[in-house]
């Protein structure tokens, strides 16, 4: 049995929890992107021909499409040097005790099983390329709720998956979503039936453990009419000297008069390229709430898109990014108003230190039929020194004058006067800066579920100490 390296683990050292590594030698690792590899992955997963067809189309799309000519430079990414498929020998488990010892130990230290027992209606855990655990409470199964790994959903609910898969995010959307569709593995599938409101959230946790590897999980969620769901994503990875890649995809469908709150804390390490794609279709009276925290990665490029297709559809977007030395976090949102009386509310904050770069991009399109719509965007950036950078880049296309629209952006440095005042009250300079930063981030923390708000504050502390990644 492979053993977990916990020689550096200390109970009161939070960062060492995230640095925990499983040195599992019984792994199947494949590199690059070739037709033979894609056919092998599809065969091992026992996928139907229509899924293999999507994968093969995606290979061609990846090599046809070019890198974006804006944003962070990622020219050094060589897909042939990335382990694009890393598979544990044992498959998905329904009981936590059936997960392999070395993998279970990592998730135990991260607190995954405890959070499931205390606060969740269901939980999933992915390790590298495969889901290793998935579970849903029996009462929700009886109500017709589906929560399973995406691979299993293809086998058990092929017609339902086929109805929605690639429909929100098409294969040719951009180069790295094409890469995702060629290599997708793991992820979660959720279906909430009509008139079903979950009183506890579902959670999926994604751990990229292997050095020099890629993770390409696919999450697809359908919240049917008059229903409610809170879904939480957690992501983390230990630090290596090799480049890692995350190119996941999230497709969300919020039906008439339904609500989906989608919360994410991304705590990658400084060797990670995070090229994630998320998109949601919202029908009449529906609501999507994005709550996001971006920490740790070398580069992030993430801009969730909400398409408000029905009268009264709503989007709320709450986000915080923290960039330290060597980090370039390029995040934001896109929203399309396709119907009357739709609304968007944005509260985004960023913090940068030690030369870190935070960029917030918004792309808003209000169609001419979206009369009486309302949009309010607020972006605030805090720089902790003179060598860091923060930018806000809005692009707004408004096709009707029957709209209420406001965009506020604030960029500033931490106040020397505030630091001086707090130090005069007995705080050290580091304590004073920490207090100001946590106060700046508090409105975002309040939007997260309690357990994730605690984790976000821990990550802010670690960033202030310079110990992430």
Describe this structure in words.
- This protein is α/β, with parallel strands linked by helices.
- The protein has 2 domains: 4-302, no CATH class; 415-469, no CATH class.
- It has 12 helices and 27 strands.
- The protein has helices at 14-18, 35-44, 49-64, 101-110, 112-119, 138-142, 150-156, 158-164, 175-183, 416-424, 429-445, 450-465; strands at residues 4-5, 21-22, 27-31, 83-88, 122-127, 130-136, 146-149, 188-192, 202-207, 214-215, 218-223, 228-236, 244-246, 249-254, 259-267, 272-274, 277-282, 287-295, 299-302, 305-308, 314-323, 328-337, 343-352, 357-366, 373-383, 389-398, 403-413.
- The strands form 4 sheets. Strands 7, 8, 10, 11, 13, 14, 16, 17, 19, 20, 22, 24 and 26 form a 13-stranded mixed beta sheet that branches. Strands 6-5-9-12-15-18-21-23-25-27 form a 10-stranded mixed beta sheet.
- Helix 10 packs across helix 11 (429-445).
- The longest helix is centred in the C-terminal third of the chain and has 17 residues, at 429-445.
Residues in helices, as a percent range? 25-40%
Q: Supply the number of helical segments.
A: 12
Assign the structural class, choosing from mainly alpha, mainly beta, alpha/beta, alpha+beta, or little secondary structure.
Answer: alpha/beta
Low-pLDDT stretches are 1-15
Strand content: 35-45%
Question: How confident is the prediction overall: mean pLDDT?
Answer: 86
